[in-house]
Amino acid sequence: MTVGRVVPVVTVPDLPTAVEQYRAVLGLDVVMDHGWIATLADPEHRHQVSLMTRDATAPVNPVVSIEVNGVDALDEAHRNAVAAGLRIVHPLSDEPWGVRRFFFADAAGNVVNVLAHHR
What we know:
It contains 2 helices and 8 strands, in the order E-H-E-E-E-E-H-E-E-E. By secondary structure, the protein is of the alpha+beta class. The protein has one domain: 2,3-Dihydroxybiphenyl 1,2-Dioxygenase, domain 1, CATH 3.10.180. Strand 3 (about 35-40) and strand 4 form a beta hairpin. The mean pLDDT is about 95.
């Protein structure tokens, strides 16, 4: 399995205001905006941060999103999380915005979004 990217997720009450603040301070550009989550990145997309009000389909916001390369790798990660006895917070789901994902909670209670884009 290959991890393609790791993006911190910051929960904010006002997405447009937060986007403008992060852009003003860091000079990042919006590369995705769904209205409830926006991702900002540098021109090479090496450094990214997501800002989120409330997840559209999950019961809780994650603190980080980890993208794996392909849905087979995602399904493997899900099997690994279940085998490790981790609590699945959001079930393996095909989301309408083109990703397959699940959330797990680690031992400290941090919620992790593991995802793959549909190709």
